Amino acid sequence: MDLLSNATISATPGTFLGIYDELSKYNVHLNIFERLWASWYAYMQNDVLATGIMSFVMHEVFYFGRSLPWIIIDQIPYFNKYKIQGNKIPTAAEQWTCTKLVLLSHFTVELPQIYLFHPMAKYFGMGTDVPFPTLFTIAYQVAIFFVLEDTWHYWMHRAMHYGWLYKKIHKIHHQYSAPFGLAAEYASPIEVMVLGLGTVGSPILWVMLTGNLHILTMYIWIVCRLFQAIDAHSGYEFPWSLHHFLPFWAGADHHDTHHEKFIGNYASSFRWWDYCLDTESGPEAAKKRRERKIEKEVKKAQ
């Protein structure tokens, strides 16, 4: 019937395995992941703590787990030809310095946000129960969160490039003119909170308006957002990069140019805000602006 009920392991009811075994006997309609999920919350007896621990561990595993391949790639000369700024490979010292600040930010800034997310979202109707939502529900909600976060990120990021906001807050993130994966969350604590509000606030806004959100969807959204941010900071442009197939996707070339030029390309995931508001950066964008300017002057002279 299930994996554990016929096992030779003797699990007492108070243990996680014991709870899983007991729950599985009477919930055969649930899949193994749903049983594990329900057993975790039953074992913890504290939803806020259960969500907080699971969320933080998930964030750390996926953040550093996704960064690791880029660290390895940086050490393999074959991939240098795909490096956007080919002569700027991060050193081990730079990687370690970055890691220390990122960890400090995770424990002092992001951990409290993660812990407080559950009671806030639960208040507005977020679910933690089983069964899980359908794949379609997860997919369309994550897509909406991408659009909402990208909008928030564009305007907040653009604001941080003005005056004292840049000097006092955002300049830290621009320490690396040639970004690398680990540097995705290398930023001032204030910036982490402000830009992170788009990531966490989008699902909260959604559940406030609809009352329809499962925390599993939130987890999948966070993982997707982490992958997007880390890949955008990777510094690598491949023939198979996603923006070659989805032209409106930003990707590493979009954000790498932002770090190199220190201006323009403010959006996180998509290109449409920069395109529509003429804040695209790089040689191609500059060329198009010159052409539009010349065309405008010619029309004016006629």
Automatic annotation (TrEMBL):
Protein name per Swiss-Prot or TrEMBL: Fatty acid hydroxylase domain-containing protein
Gene Ontology molecular-function annotations: iron ion binding; oxidoreductase activity
The Fatty acid hydroxylase domain, residue ranges: 143-279
UniProt subcellular location: Membrane
Species of provenance: Sclerotinia nivalis
Transmembrane segment boundaries: 130-148, 204-224
Keyword terms: Membrane, Transmembrane, Transmembrane helix
Record lineage: Eukaryota, Fungi, Dikarya, Ascomycota, Pezizomycotina
Pfam families recorded: FA_hydroxylase (PF04116)
Keyword Transmembrane helix belongs to the record: yes
Database matches in InterPro entries: Fatty_acid_hydroxylase, Sterol_Desaturase_Related
GO cellular component, one term: membrane
Gene Ontology terms describing biological process: lipid biosynthetic process
